[in-house]
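re: ur msg from earlier - yeah i can do the adenosine-5'-diphosphate complex, just paste it... oh wait u already did. ok heres what im feeding in:
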Amino acid sequence: MRRIGVLTSGGDAPGMNAAIRAVVRTALSQGAGVVGIERGFHGLIHGEFVELNSRSVADIIHRGGTILKSARSEAFKTPEGRQKAVENLKQAGISAMVVIGGDGSFRGAMALTAMGVPAVGVPATIDNDIACTDVSIGFDTAINTVIDGINKIRDTATSHERIYVVEVMGRESGFIALWAGLAGGAESILIPEIPYDLDAVYQRIVQGQQLGKNHSIIVVAEGVDGPPSGEAESVAMRVGRYIRERGGFEVRVIILGHLQRGGNPTAYDRILASRLGHKAALLALQGIGGKMVGIVHDRIEAFDLQEAIEGHKAIDEEFYTLAQTLSSL
Ligand code: ADP
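and the outut:
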């Protein structure tokens, strides 16, 4: 009987469980067996293997996090570590792998493929910064979580006529800030990809007040270079300090942090994860490795992992302009 393995690695994302379920049930439907590897590449090296059946993945489609747990493994970056992992896979009779994670995890999948274990990547990261796919698993849930937060902040901001600076995740990319900022009607959105002018941000608040707005919300991605500060503080704190010091407004800063990683996946993420997991399992069962499955124009397709890793996913600047236009009147 053919056997494939599945693991989740790197930063977790809501919808990973739905992807695991799809991989397991697709393999079972094809008469193959599935082994879950716990704690990502760490578990691959340490033989943390669990046999999965249909019941193992019952009741998880709606749950955030990952039942297989996630970890980072420095040892897998060494030839000795990878050798041990491949030996464990051979011993367990696993012929191919599905790796659910971000681009770091895909480098691991490439390494496995190069060592004779075909591995297929499934893009899962709330940051949505993976090339060759319009959307990654977890992004939709994360932006809905942020919007939920912005809605609540807006209620209190209106009551107290305050300015709120909301910091969201995104070290190198502004997808969460841009999409959640647009959907949440933020007055300003600061992202790493687009240079900003804090004076202009301040002036927008002043203009908003002149137009009768009684509060403002500024969404900032964590990876934005903030204005200089003598202290080790987050970019949102610095932006908040700047506005406070310019005067005229009461300012509050909120850092949403890790709550953006959790929560029940949205319907969109569950469906995306089911479709991507299904396709990945089919490829792995055919012994096709070195691929990442992605969604482009609502079609599930396979791309070379190399292309997905090396490609850069650019944000849509039209979104940025649209958000500015719609919030400036
Ligand atoms: P993400 O998948 O979310 O981008 P990381 O970048 O932390 O997360 O990568 C997850 C894991 O993938 C690492 O801890 C490591 O075990 C493995 N990995 C990352 N880069 C490589 C590489 N160049 N070669 C082999 N394994 C890698």
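cool cool. The longest strand covers residues 3-8. ping me if u need the other ligands too
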